[in-house]
Specification:
The structure is a homodimer.
Chain A: H1 13-27, H2 39-46, H3 50-62, E1 66-69, E2 73-76, H4 86-89, H5 101-104, H6 110-118, E3 124-125, H7 144-149, H8 166-178, E4 188-191, H9 194-205, E5 211-216, H10 220-228, E6 232-239, E7 242-243, H11 245-255, E8 259-262, H12 276-289, E9 292-296, H13 312-315, E10 321-326, E11 338-341, H14 344-357, H15 363-374, H16 377-403, E12 409-410, E13 418-422, H17 429-438, E14 441-442, E15 444-445, E16 458-462, H18 468-503
Parallel strand pairs in A: 3-14, 5-6, 5-8, 8-9, 9-10
Antiparallel strand pairs in A: 1-2, 4-11, 6-7, 10-11, 12-13, 13-16, 15-16
Chain lengths: ~500, ~500
């Protein structure tokens, strides 16, 4: 129903509205059973008084064109022949028959609510896995307006090939060389964030019933993407050297999975760096068992100490490793830009899928990133951001040393975004979420990173997002919440004991 | 394999390279069987002479660390124990076992090659479905750099909710009101182009074996997205009033499809505007048969003459219509931004899927579009662009009247992007593609728009992309190609007759 009010006209507004609706009913544009918008909402959207709408509706009723019905408001009545019963027509789709198996399988989105809480100004957030606002390379945008408006660089605004700008793919080959991979642009595709790479690979590789091996803990949305295809997901536990390779080999032998998903470098959520011997072994196992590896390397360049170990892709030349990386963790997540490096047979399939998924990634984002790589901005930015994040990591580690209860255990990640903490015995991460929220500090509970019902004894702390000055008070409040809960735990356990004892 | 050359060092480059590779082999970073990069490529990527690489490889060979193998270049040899045979390890994945059913079902991408041809400067393109470069609202970018760099509007660069900025969703409700739909922001989700809406709805609604009804001809990538889920796609023919509703009703009755996909307004490829009576009927049928309608409205606001008929979504208040639209056809396709309006139950599922698909659409694109809507730029731009495209349409229609052979038939679309032509009897659209390419003019053959083996007697001409001055010569060349082919047809048929006669 389209209504236009002519504020210059002498005709009163209610007459204008009445006549337009009348015409639409008589012409059949408005069907019997159509509910007119509620008066208040309609008045707001047209910028008129509510009484104007009431008057227009009154006129329509007087002509027998509309009627009021309980629970449905003002409804267009049947035409003169009375051949259709509006009551019957006013029914919604049968919702429980509408949705696909795929969509019925979605898990709940606990993390989403956490992030809403995290965006409140008075809350200190160790929850989000995003870059620091003040560390963003805002200089990447310098000069873009001139280039767009004066030089009319329309390239940034039109379609790109599905795989992305060829010049950007070549620039990414340059980036990959510094990561030890010698590839050509045909081996590279741009993605709308690396999450898209996980989703497309799931669709292009996995059939229902296929098996995917993941680290446990692992990145939750990846697990969801695998499960959504109908695949089975099996976890391999990690220790301080990464995925336990002996367990992996047993699983490969027994289940013959189709894909191994791993974040070998500064893993999310654990921050663990997979050891060199395990990196060798996992490549050997891929060759032996002919299984693909998806290497998710969102954090690898954020190295704060020690020697950067070779990425898996740099150790593979038979095409088993599908490499994913992103500009979300070092430039801006809002640009939604990541990339994949893989055997060109895989790139070809991924491109065919991407063509019906979103055609191509934002040309504007691609253009901005390409400028930033080729003018040397990214390289300079990485040095700066590593220095800043190392400082933040150290501030958080110091604060933990100072405030943590003696039975809180944490690791010292050599890079990336996260510190992984084991809570004192009896303290539940899920309960700690609300306790900490009361003290205005948020984090992600370990349960979000497991395929099974585990992780309630761990929490993930992000150290990159919060301003330096907030880290110490945030950790202090968090530790108070842990101590509170540990104490209550003891007393409530004692209470339960008292309750149970009499029965036994 | 990561190699860094220190150009300041006294050590010769080949020694630096030799020592780094040697260390990586001995430490196990480079596995037995690893192929070193080919000398020429490696030299290029390091910025050294090829002889430098040859010398480094020679030293490695002298130490027994690498060897040459026919077809594989220079390969890292097994370690001393000789416990692994590099020959066995140098194998690629078993490609025919790698890919999913979904990905094996992709059709070929003829259109993609056409678009590559269309991008050549000397070719006049009536093929692409994109906006005119000179008509783009470049003013949408005015002031963005200042807002980003000075006001530091980080909103544009960080994560948004999966559904998009709430303020933009509200601005879209304003846009929808002018299209006759009174919705709230909860009914709206931003998409990375409307193609993403088609893909997500396919995944969220369709199970293998479900049936989707489409217009025939229809938008090819939509058909592909439906088929990729394992759904069956059935076509309903169209005439000058749109989808034949009596055929649709028979299909609804017999097959009980789950989804009807339609472009009622200025359809792609036919340019046809569905009549009001049929719009009424399709809504009634959706209610009667409880079937969802996906209304793809990419072109509806590009109206050049006559009265804009109500969009289906404006006639539906029971939640059967899923409405899709885009900024690709009126702003810039490279921003990859579209939106969906649907019942909030559907929006909720779509958002859950989008969260694992690409998390959210480009924040930067959303921010630019929101500015452009709220500062009134979009509304002004639409008036300008409709005037320009109407002119281009008329120039093309005039040129067709002037140059077309008498048996070429075309329609006069009241809006949108396309003129749909029926070729003279015996002229094949696929053959015309190469004939026209010789004369440096491209278009899309009708075969690209049918689910079955039809359409070779039609072509789609886009009139928005080519500059006005190119339209007349382009149509002239195209018509020459048609006439050529029509004549050759007759003579080559005559020739065949001659060949065949002696045998009979």
């Amino acid at each position: 129903m389209r209504i236009l009010i002519d504020k210059e006209s002498n005709e009163p507004f209610y007459i204008q509205i009445f006549e337009q609706i009348r015409r639409q009913i008589l012409s059949g544009e408005l069907l019997p059973g159509y509910r007119l918008p509620p008066e208040r909402k309609f008045a707001q959207s047209l910028g008129v008084n509510r009484s104007t709408i009431l008057n227009a509706y009154r006129e329509l009723k007087a002509e027998g064109l509309v009627g009021s019905r309980v629970g449905a408001g003002t409804v267009v009545l049947s035409d003169i022949q009375g051949d259709s019963d509006p009551q019957n027509e006013a029914q919604e789709p049968i919702w429980n028959q509408i949705f696909s198996q795929y969509s019925n399988g979605f898990d709940s989105f606990f993390v989403k609510e956490l992030l809403t809480l995290a965006s409140r100004k008075d809350v200190i957030s160790f929850a989000t896995g995003i870059a620091a606002p003040e560390s963003g390379p805002i200089e990447a945008f310098e000069g873009i307006e001139q280039e767009l408006l004066e030089k009319k660089d329309f390239r940034a605004l039109f379609h790109t090939p599905t795989e992305g700008f060829t010049t950007l793919r070549e620039a990414l080959c340059g980036l990959m060389r510094r990561r030890g991979v010698y590839c050509r642009y045909e081996d590279v595709i741009l993605l709308s964030g690396s999450q898209q790479g996980i989703d497309i690979i799931s669709r292009v590789i996995l059939d229902p019933g296929d098996i995917v091996v993941v680290e446990e803990p692992s990145f939750f949305p990846a697990i969801q993407a695998f499960k959504a295809t109908g695949a089975r997901v099996i976890g391999v536990p990690i220790d301080d050297k990464g995925m336990k390779i002996d367990v992996l080999e047993q699983l490969l032998h027994r289940y013959r999975p189709k894909l191994i998903y791993t974040m070998p470098t500064y893993q999310n959520p654990s921050g663990v760096d997979m050891g060199l011997e395990r990196r060798r072994r996992i490549i050997e196992l891929a060759n032996t068992y002919k299984v693909l590896i998806m290497e998710d390397d969102a954090y690898g360049e954020l190295c704060y100490e020690g020697h950067q170990l070779p990425i898996l892709k740099s150790m593979d030349n038979n095409g088993y490793v599908i490499y994913l990386s992103t500009f979300s963790k070092n430039v801006y997540a809002g640009l939604r830009l990541g990339w994949m490096v893989a055997h060109k047979r895989i790139i070809k399939r991924v491109a065919a899928a991407k063509q019906i998924i979103d055609l191509h990634s934002s040309s504007l984002s691609q253009w901005i990133i390409e400028r930033f790589i080729t003018n040397g901005g990214l390289e300079a930015h990485m040095i700066k951001v590593c220095r800043e994040y190392k400082l933040k990591r150290d501030v958080m580690l110091d604060a933990l040393s100072k405030y943590a209860p003696s039975d809180l255990i944490w690791n010292t990640p050599k890079g990336g975004y996260y510190i992984w903490c084991k809570l004192p015995q009896g303290v539940s991460a899920s309960e700690l979420v609300s306790k900490a929220a009361e003290r205005k500090v948020v984090f992600v509970p370990g349960t979000s990173f497991f395929t099974s019902d585990q992780g309630d004894d761990h929490i993930r702390l992000n150290f990159t997002y919060a301003p330096v000055k907030d880290i110490k008070p945030g950790i202090s409040r968090l530790c108070e919440a842990i101590k509170d809960l540990a104490q209550n735990k003891v007393s409530s356990e004692a209470y339960i004991d008292m309750e149970i004892n009499p029965i036994v």
